[in-house]
Specification:
This protein has helices spanning 5-8, 30-38, 41-52, 55-71, 82-100, 117-120, 129-147, 151-162, 167-174, 178-193. By secondary structure, the protein is mainly alpha-helical.
């Protein structure tokens, strides 16, 4: 007796119904479909953030995914889990975004006719000597203004802001309440800005 090859795969040779997996249900109920898609938003945003490292670009990419899904440009066939499919659509949107934005800014300057001159004008991350001198002068003036303050304000700002001590230790040392400390620090800062 021979077995029908179709029967080994779960099919019956007598024209009867097959036992293949049922196709994924079509998304007939639009509101249920939208809710299912939007339920994956947080995951998709985190996924995009890890790739793009920019919250605005990540949000835009996820928005583009939802727009593509809801407008019908991307259709879910049910061959994978919904989250996997949405992630695949998102990956394509991320690739599109990366192609749109250059990885590095050009050092070429269209106005400059000398090649390589633009590279010489790249800003150094450290401050120059003039900036260091200005910062030291400003610091000296600020410290002089702090020394000229009344002792209550001077001690409060010196201990809490300059020495970065905890609120509790400053209050203990000065013998004042937290509210009083906050008022003194506020007045001292206001005095410096005047």
């Amino acid at each position: 007796m021979f077995r029908d090859e179709g029967a080994t795969r779960g099919e019956h040779s007598g024209g009867m119904e097959t036992s293949r997996p049922a196709p994924a249900p079509a998304m007939h109920d639009v509101h249920a479909s939208i809710a299912e898609v939007v339920a994956h938003r947080a995951y998709l945003v985190r996924f995009a953030m890890r790739r793009l490292r920019d919250p605005m670009l990540a949000e835009d990419a996820v928005h583009d995914v939802f727009e593509a899904v809801l407008s019908g440009r991307a259709s879910f066939a049910g061959r994978a889990a919904l989250r996997s499919w949405l992630t695949a659509v998102l990956k394509n949107k991320i690739v599109d975004e990366m192609r749109r934005t250059p990885a590095h800014e050009s050092l070429d300057d269209d106005d400059d006719e000398t090649p390589g001159r633009a590279a010489l004008r790249v800003a150094c991350p450290r401050p120059g000597p003039e900036e260091v001198a200005e910062q030291r002068e400003l610091l000296g003036r600020t410290l002089a203004r702090i020394d000229a303050m009344p002792s209550g304000l001077r001690d409060a700002i010196r201990l809490r802001v300059i020495e970065e001590r905890s609120t509790e230790s400053v209050c203990r040392e000065l013998g004042i309440s937290e509210e009083n400390l906050f008022v003194r620090v506020h007045r001292a800062r206001k005095h410096l800005l005047s």
